[in-house]
Fold this protein.
Amino acid sequence: MNVRGIGLWMLCYLVLTAAMYFDLGEQEEKCLIEEIPGDMLVTGYFLLENWDAKNNLNSPHLGLTITVRDPNHDILMKKRYGRFGKFTFTSHASGPHWLCMQSNSTRFSVFAGERLRIHFDVQMGEHSIDPSVEIHKDTVQTMEYSLEHLRDQILYITRQQDFQREREETFRQISEETNGKVLWWAVVQTSVLLSVGFWQIKRLKDFLIAKKLV
């Protein structure tokens, strides 16, 4: 493994230290659903390990295939990776996005029985916190980096607020349409009940008159 690969592995390890993890079988696919605003740069980090920590995962045939689908289920990105790495994509529409992971094992399904552990983390924004930044950087550069990150976080929060407003507006429209339909349905039910009641009263009156009871 070259220096660049070691650096990428260290970056993924540091980012994924506090990230979530879940199990995955060989040749099995699992998907996560993330609510992502439109026009948002998304960066994902992953690390593939053996579920049993006592067994080292040195198999060269193991890796991960990442597939990203937008709210319309169109594929935004599909790429094969090794045991660790990062991926980026830009969302084109607001809504749920499917992040699907599948181990790209080349072994036959009969022999592909290993349980794997995936450490996974998703960050949104132009500049995410990079743990590989050197500790001994100049203070001004560090402040510039922090300001850039703060600006991007503000932009991310603004886009999230716009996204939530869009969802609230959509929910309000659906609620108004539903309330209108319920109101009309109540009016129709009342009209039918009144019509049936008047019809029954008329039939009863005609019956009584025919029997000369009235």
